[in-house]
Amino acid sequence: MTDPAPARRPGGRTARVRADVHRAVEELLREQPLAQLTIAQIAERSGVHQGTLYRRWQSLDGLLLDVVTEHLVRHSPMPDTGTLAGDLEQYARQTLDDLSGPQGKLLLRTLVAVRQGPESEAELPPALLRRYDELQALLDRAAARGEHPPTVQDVVDLIVAPMYTGLLLDGTPGDEDTARRLVDRIHRLSQTS
Amino acid sequence: MTDPAPARRPGGRTARVRADVHRAVEELLREQPLAQLTIAQIAERSGVHQGTLYRRWQSLDGLLLDVVTEHLVRHSPMPDTGTLAGDLEQYARQTLDDLSGPQGKLLLRTLVAVRQGPESEAELPPALLRRYDELQALLDRAAARGEHPPTVQDVVDLIVAPMYTGLLLDGTPGDEDTARRLVDRIHRLSQTS
Fold this sequence. Notes:
The structure is a homodimer of 193-residue chains. The first copy, chain A, is mostly helical and 193 residues long. Chain A contains nine helices and no strands. The first copy, chain A, has helices at 12-31, 39-46, 50-57, 60-75, 84-100, 102-115, 126-144, 152-170, 176-190. In chain A, helix 1 crosses helix 2 and helix 5 runs antiparallel to helix 9. The interface between A and B is medium-sized, with 34 and 35 residues.
């Protein structure tokens, strides 16, 4: 996390375009509701040509999915409390917080939008793929300490999935009790395996 | 299920409007892709005025959510195999089948659409609420036989939620192994409580 390297050089034109577009969308979303956002506005604000935006992200929803997952991952670093129990509890609370705000609804909307139509087999956005790797690292640290961690699939099924589904079906990912209840389930399951 | 009563009388004007609209949408969806469907077409085909459609369902997505949940519930009756294990296994397989087809994506899309914006606290469609009641009845039958069933919340969290989330994140609710794995988890958890 605390990289001792000197100021990083930008990663070339592609990375600069991406950073400019992300910044433009976050700015625009502070000024106006999401529903009014257009690709034309993002092009104007970021200084990136509309054609480039469509080539890179295919659609407005694809672009927004990229922005929202990047935002969530950047603002919710993976916990590293020193114990599996502490890490899972903090992870559950953070996920709940992330999904509770307007970002949660935006995440659902854009995930569903890119899952419709022919591009439905599209890869997950880079930030979500990185998230899986970080979660695996969290579980590996627990195993290295001699704890008996669940798998990434278990964590997604038992913590993330009920929150997504609560948001879908009830309009909310849950409350404090939900986070506690879901983490408790993971611990109980680990006793049976 | 096998109601001995003579031919039922239609439930009045509201029920007739609903039946006409559902029939019209199912017909239209056999003729053309969903993305081209409009409220105007549904009004024309069903003979129900556009104003009535908007008053009743607020939006095209609200209307489609009602149609798709009604369709899923009607075509996937709750299992009643005589054992809790048999019922849960069949329920998991059916849910997987239901979500695997085009109906699964339609369900996600319309659920998310009605969860956006101010109407996000809207009630679930009647068919989904009925579904919860039917699931409760399935679990009550198991308890009456002396089995130790999970709660409705457990079934939603442990069977339904990972399938919805698989559909969202990977474009598929899972495969045969998924159904088996999720039911196995419920059984393992019941041994810990």
